[in-house]
């Protein structure tokens, strides 16, 4: 009896272990699976991803660009910027598969085929493509990056990307980069509240306090009159 119980428990454990193994389209330890997992991570864990075309940068040009981007990054100490070259065809596949829980899985491949999934940014990834990855929503950082890339001419230029969950064209990014940053918006809000506190908000609070005091005083008087009558 006990032997059968132990066997059943062992079998159940084995089944759970098999179920926990990812059923990936390519081998789980293959480079393609690794890259799709990497794309999934930076796409889902960062607020901004800018897609840029690069004209087959030489190693020296590549290092110069990384150095300049690190310099821009150092000016924005509360954020983080990263530059990565992408494997275009595989990244296009990832964009289609990203709507699935596990983009590297066989289930994702079947899902793409069944629903004929396409992504609005996939056409930007034809040819040599790079991603500029920014952790937080920061229009000023995007502005600095686009300004720097404009000096690179045809060697490296932004084509579009995503901000939060929104797909962005180059025109959208031009508008976004001129917006106020979150700290600036917070400062503006605090300023407005401080201004209001000197006027309407203060008067409203004072009026509410006065009304409450009058109500309490009236109630006390009523109770005192009741005690006298008794």
UniProtKB/TrEMBL annotation:
Coiled coil location: none
Organism domain of life: Eukaryota
TM regions (residue ranges): none
Family: Belongs to the universal ribosomal protein uL10 family.
Entries under PANTHER family matching the protein: 39S RIBOSOMAL PROTEIN L10, MITOCHONDRIAL
Name of the protein this chain belongs to: 54S ribosomal protein L11, mitochondrial
Source species: Pichia kudriavzevii (Yeast)
Taxonomic path: Eukaryota, Fungi, Dikarya, Ascomycota, Saccharomycotina
């Amino acid at each position: 009896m006990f032997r059968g119980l132990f066997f059943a428990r062992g079998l159940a454990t084995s089944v759970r272990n098999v179920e926990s193994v990812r059923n990936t389209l390519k081998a789980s330890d293959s480079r393609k699976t690794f890259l799709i997992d990497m794309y999934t991570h930076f796409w889902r864990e960062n607020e901004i991803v800018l897609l840029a075309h690069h004209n087959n940068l030489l190693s020296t040009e590549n290092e110069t660009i990384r150095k300049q981007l690190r310099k821009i990054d150092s000016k924005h100490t509360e954020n983080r910027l990263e530059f990565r070259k992408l494997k275009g065809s595989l990244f296009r596949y990832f964009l289609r598969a990203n709507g699935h829980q596990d983009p590297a899985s066989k289930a994702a491949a079947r899902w793409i085929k069944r629903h004929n999934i396409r992504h609005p940014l996939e056409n930007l990834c034809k040819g040599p493509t790079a991603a500029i990855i920014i952790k937080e929503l920061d229009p000023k950082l995007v502005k600095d990056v686009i300004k720097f890339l404009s000096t690179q001419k045809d060697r490296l230029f932004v084509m579009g990307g995503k901000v939060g969950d929104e797909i962005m064209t180059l025109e959208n990014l031009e508008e976004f980069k001129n917006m106020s940053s979150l700290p600036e918006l917070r400062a503006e809000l605090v300023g407005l509240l401080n201004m209001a506190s000197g006027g309407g908000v203060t008067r409203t609070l004072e009026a509410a306090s006065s009304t409450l005091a009058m109500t309490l005083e009236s109630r006390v008087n009523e109770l005192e009159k009741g005690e006298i009558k008794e």
